[in-house]
Design a protein that fits this description.
single chain; mainly alpha; three-stranded antiparallel sheet; globular
Length: 374
């Protein structure tokens, strides 16, 4: 019997070109916005998109079931990389999040998202008959704690929150008992209120000083207008000044908040500010619409997946792109505390960009095999 190639044969008509279009369109918007913010980063961003496309296409053509056989190796790799950051990583702005290997500098916490999604996809697939048990949930949480703790030690609270959100979505579609979900929500709501109270206390026992100040600056921006809330308030001003259609690409208007130098990190954390000022309400809605379209497309793929592992992969990637996107936009518009997290496919940064393209490649592969077997 002839051994089947790792590149499984698929029909071109089943390829999810709509998802590819949404991803590339959002990436192009990112390049345009970055060219206005810092033109020196454009070439690097385009190279990242090209590399991401290659990775996405290759991964989309490899049977994900074969890749998931190495799920334990993915988990160990995530742990090793995150440990490497704490031991050998470089420090920037008070956080140690970057690692250099063979002359390549990258952010392991970004890759850890996709590695953990792949690990839990196979783990749930193997234990799908026991997903509703407390033992399974407890074991899953135990697997989550080491990488989560290592990311918190960097420190990187925003990525930790994102991983928790992805984990919650994965467990939900994995099939955990709905009564357990209701019970957790019943406990979580009052617990959150207590935690929020403790966060606001002087010398909070939960958060570090700079983290607590970010919360306070979000709640009372006028009291921190010249310090922590400065960026956010200028961002809101820039987005508002764009009005309906914006001031135009790479505007040189004297009223431009961006050109006046009031927005730092405009190529990464506050890239939505550039879009809002230059392309207005319409440009902002286009970005939000594309993020939603990608998320909805991933959920549709998850619904039609051939097995539970495929459903978990598509849901995890969709949750990652959507929640992280809206968290970034929430920061730029003042709806969320400043977290320092990039806008997927738009912000400058090769690690984040290639990681998302890698994730989309897995969703495309799940889409090519849309025949349920469970």
């Amino acid at each position: 019997m002839k051994k089947q190639s790792i590149f499984t044969r698929y029909k071109l008509k089943n390829y999810d070109f709509a998802l590819v279009f949404f991803v590339l369109f959002l990436s192009v918007i990112g390049v345009v916005a970055i060219s206005s913010s810092d033109n020196s980063l454009v070439t690097k961003q385009i190279m990242g998109i090209a590399l991401g496309c290659v990775v996405m296409i290759v991964v989309s053509l490899i049977d994900y079931s074969r890749i998931l056989q190495f799920y334990l190796a993915f988990y160990i790799l995530a742990i090793v990389l995150l440990l490497g950051v704490l031991v050998f990583g470089s420090n920037s702005h008070g956080a140690q999040r970057w690692l250099e290997i063979a002359g390549i500098t990258f952010q392991p916490s970004e890759f850890s998202k996709i590695l953990l999604i792949l690990f839990f996809a196979q783990y749930i697939q193997i234990n799908k008959k026991n997903v509703e048990t407390i033992k399974f949930i407890f074991t899953s949480v135990l697997f989550l704690l080491p990488p989560l703790g290592l990311i918190l030690l960097e420190p990187d609270l925003s990525t930790s929150i994102m991983i928790c959100i992805i984990f919650a979505c994965i467990l939900f579609v994995g099939g955990i008992n709905r009564r357990f979900v209701i019970a957790v929500l019943a406990v979580s709501v009052p617990l959150f209120a207590v935690l929020f109270y403790l966060i606001l206390l002087p010398d909070s026992p939960i958060l570090q000083g700079y983290q607590q100040n970010r919360i306070l600056a979000w709640l009372h921006p006028e009291d921190y207008a010249d310090s922590i809330a400065y960026q956010t308030m200028k961002s809101i001003m820039a987005i508002g000044s764009g009005q309906l259609t914006g001031k135009g690409y790479d505007t040189n208007e004297i009223t431009s908040v961006l050109n006046a130098g009031f927005i730092s990190e405009s190529q990464t954390d506050f890239i939505f500010t550039v879009i809002g000022e230059e392309f207005g309400f319409i440009g902002g809605c286009l970005v939000i619409g594309l993020i939603l379209a990608i998320g909805i497309n991933c959920l549709i793929v998850a619904h039609k997946a051939k097995d539970k592992a495929g459903e978990v992969i598509a849901t995890g990637i969709g949750a990652w792109i959507c929640f992280q996107g809206f968290l970034n936009i929430g920061v730029a518009t003042g709806a969320m505390p400043n977290t320092g997290i990039p806008l997927p496919l738009v912000s400058s940064g090769l690690t984040s960009l290639v990681s998302v393209y890698l994730g989309v490649g897995f969703v495309l592969n799940v889409s090519l095999q849309q025949v349920r077997t469970y």
